[in-house]
Task: structure prediction
Amino acid sequence: METPFSHPDRNLALELVRATEAAAIRAMPYVGRGDKNAADGAAVDAMRKFLGTVNFQGTIVIGEGEKDNAPMLFNGEVVGNGYGPECDIAVDPIDGTSLTAAGRGNAISMLAVSDRGSMLDASTVFYMEKLVSNADGVGVLDLGQSLTDNIRELAKAKGKPVSEIRVAILDRPRHADAIEEIRTAGAHTRLILDGDVAAGINAARSDSRIDMSYGVGGSPEGVATTCAIKALDGFIQGRLMPKSDEERTNGAAAGLKFDYVYSADELVSSDNTFFVATGVTDGDLVRGVRRDGAWLRTESIIFRARSGTVRRVSSDYLASRWLSE
Result:
């Protein structure tokens, strides 16, 4: 049987992690300073510079920033040094800009990469309903059934009572009914303030206390999360949620489907995916950037679907080379 060990190849993510590390470090001085756009702008500039050194031909299929006029790596931007494989990129220099500005946990710098032409380009529709779990949810969960039924079926698949199921969901007014349904079903909520990428990944990890992630969040985050879920053999589905007639019209013109449940393979058709995240602030997925005397330490996590690999990377940087004192 052929395995990744039989024919080892280059792990692009080990180069990409330098870009998320740089973005997280540059954002660190803005943690708790109340200016999310300044933090995002610093992270964007750093990520763009470091992506330019990577040996690939990357096209940003889904960039962040359009929905709130924030700084951004724009859709269609070409990054990399022009050599190597052609790739699609979903990028968010800071997933959790509000968390960063407030000094709260779970902000990350992240990017996801797959073979060129394999990512669903949902850039015309900013929001997506998402359902994520680990492998226990495969063949069990479905956005086409009620949230209550999904909770009950997942509990059966996991072999534990509903009362032990924990569901991560963004704490937003739009989720008031879903939060009530989760609790009425007998499960627990894990309310998150922002940044549902980390919540989705944690739901797919076997060692996490989160069993399921659900809710309406960013479409870019849904596609990026899929790249990590594929490395974990987890479950994800998405359903686009246009917020206006204009979004629906633009989405339809781009070939997107509405009132339709996208599977993982429809969100990202390639199994050659990479996902890289570096902590900006401390969270369940990774620790944030921290200073220890003259040094800065970052923690990153790297997922690669083809080899089924998850790596954690700690890096130390001389602060004097990176921050203005």
The longest helix spans residues 36-51. Residues 18 and 205 are 24 Å apart (CA to CA).
